[in-house]
């Protein structure tokens, strides 16, 4: 463009304003071009105070500098560094290749910034007012920084490729015409994606996005209460950790560096999501962290973690008052949770949820853990009970594992027909479905003692007068109770009247005890 305009490398175009001429020279020198007044109220790019022509440049001139600007002065590197500048008209760099470094601070854009399919080294817009950023398929070798910027009509970063970091810390983004605040489907970030204390009014969409290191939403506030989802990120891949945790804020209003522990007196802002969240089929290399997160859901909305895979899930947020938490098909190594973080019955779904270790934060007694499983099974499903029992047994807590499996049988009993339900009560009352085999010995001892006392007063004529053993009421009672072993007493003596009914009852009870013990032994062998 410079050559086409008939300009030599050192010439200024004739139609430049004073502000544009200064920007032109600063570009060649690689220096910061600051048009701010020094009054914080006047210089606020998001305020209502008007900026006059003395600090206004045309978008066409900015594009001219970035796409085909004049050469740098001797010993300098050309770059566009603007502070407190107003850009009028749409800044359209679509499809262009921008080599110079770009950094704009505290600037205003009259219309949208158009960067689709453009190529940059590094772009930094800091604390700028931008109606809309359209940057589908944009590529940067270095960073794309947008901290503290405000976007009235959203951001589009669909299929963008960011070489190193993408920063959206403290940005405020409002929804576009389709209801999205940030459209980042297919986004690829080489290192970190930091959106700490981001405020998004509309859907944040990261479907199929890839983050090379960590994704931080510390202290972010996502709001989309009237639609289904506030965060829509199925098939999201994060090499390290996705943080939805609190962020500390210093006295000057800036966040602490990522990962720093807030000191006493610093305000802490937790992650908040007003609307549904979808992280289905996500892959997180280190952890998925919900420390102190707050979810505000309607009855139709859900926190969906279907088929998520991660070494550690830190489910440590506030219990959602409404909505559902879905973990169906998720595969976790360590489940770190609190008893008061999980929703109540009918609002937790864990079909196919696989975890290997439980790491409770704070008290989480077995009774509450059983309530947790029951909350996830509105209808009887053995799988959550069996998974919990396997994890407890692997941790050496065999007694707790047996309690879980006993609870499973009791839950199953409620879904059976009446006859089988009654039989279940018998098994439960006698040997607790085989998980408390000591009960069988107690019942046997009680029946044997009672039978021995009773049959000591019974008439007992022998079947064969010439051949019969000596009468022993204790052996006779034991012979009745043992359904397989023959002690030679029952067939040798005749009973009559009520004693026959008592003998029949002893035989029946013996069979019941033997059957329940056998069923319990079968389950024990199968379990081992």
From TrEMBL:
Q: Which residues cross the membrane?
A: 501-525
List the keywords (alphabetical).
Membrane, Transmembrane, Transmembrane helix
Q: Does the keyword Transmembrane helix apply?
A: yes
This chain belongs to the protein called Oxidoreductase
């Amino acid at each position: 463009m410079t050559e086409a305009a008939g300009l030599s490398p050192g010439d200024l175009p004739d139609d430049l304003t004073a502000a544009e001429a200064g920007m032109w020279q600063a570009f060649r020198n690689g220096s910061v071009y600051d048009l701010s007044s020094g009054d914080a109220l006047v210089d606020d790019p998001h305020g209502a105070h008007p900026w006059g022509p003395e600090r206004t440049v045309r978008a066409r001139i900015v594009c001219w500098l970035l796409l085909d600007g004049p050469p740098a002065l001797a010993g300098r590197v050309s770059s566009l560094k603007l502070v407190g500048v107003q850009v009028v008209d749409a800044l359209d760099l679509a499809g262009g290749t921008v080599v110079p470094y770009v950094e704009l601070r505290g600037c205003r854009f009259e219309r949208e910034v158009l960067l689709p399919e453009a190529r940059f080294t590094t772009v930094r817009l800091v604390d700028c007012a931008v109606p809309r950023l359209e940057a589908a398929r944009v590529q940067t070798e270095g960073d794309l920084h947008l901290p503290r910027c405000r976007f009235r009509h959203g951001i589009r970063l669909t299929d963008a490729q960011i070489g190193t970091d993408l920063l959206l810390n403290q940005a405020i983004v409002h929804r576009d015409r389709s209801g999205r605040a940030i459209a980042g489907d297919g986004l690829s970030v080489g290192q970190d994606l930091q959106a700490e204390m981001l405020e998004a009014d509309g859907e944040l969409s990261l479907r199929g996005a890839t983050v090379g290191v960590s994704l931080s939403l510390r202290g972010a506030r996502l709001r989309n209460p009237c639609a289904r989802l506030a965060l829509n990120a199925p098939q999201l891949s994060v090499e390290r950790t996705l943080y939805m945790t609190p962020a500390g804020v210093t006295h000057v209003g800036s966040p602490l560096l990522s990962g720093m522990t807030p000191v006493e007196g610093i305000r802490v802002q937790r992650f908040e999501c007003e609307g549904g969240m979808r992280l289905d089929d996500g892959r997180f290399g280190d952890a998925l962290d919900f420390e102190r997160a707050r979810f505000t859901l309607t009855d139709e909305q859900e926190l969906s973690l279907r088929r998520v895979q991660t070494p550690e899930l830190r489910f440590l947020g506030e219990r959602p008052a409404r909505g559902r938490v879905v973990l169906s098909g998720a595969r976790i190594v360590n489940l770190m949770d609190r008893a008061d973080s999980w929703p109540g019955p009918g609002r937790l779904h864990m079909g196919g949820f696989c975890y290997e270790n439980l790491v409770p934060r704070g008290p989480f007694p077995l009774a509450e853990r059983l309530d947790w499983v029951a909350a996830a099974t509105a209808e009887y499903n053995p799988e959550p009970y069996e998974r919990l029992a396997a994890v407890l047994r692997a941790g050496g807590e065999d007694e707790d594992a047996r309690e879980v499996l006993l609870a499973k049988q009791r839950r199953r009993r409620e879904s059976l027909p009446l006859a089988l339900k009654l039989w279940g009560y018998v098994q439960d009352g006698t040997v607790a479905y085989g998980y408390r085999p000591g009960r069988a010995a107690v019942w046997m001892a009680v029946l044997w003692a009672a039978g021995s006392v009773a049959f000591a007063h019974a008439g007992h004529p022998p079947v064969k007068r010439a051949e019969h053993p000596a009468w022993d009421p204790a052996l006779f009672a034991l012979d009745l109770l043992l359904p397989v072993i023959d002690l030679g007493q029952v067939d040798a003596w005749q009973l009559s009247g009520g004693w026959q009914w008592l003998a029949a009852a002893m035989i029946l009870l013996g069979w019941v005890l033997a059957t329940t013990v056998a069923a319990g032994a079968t389950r024990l062998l199968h379990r081992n």
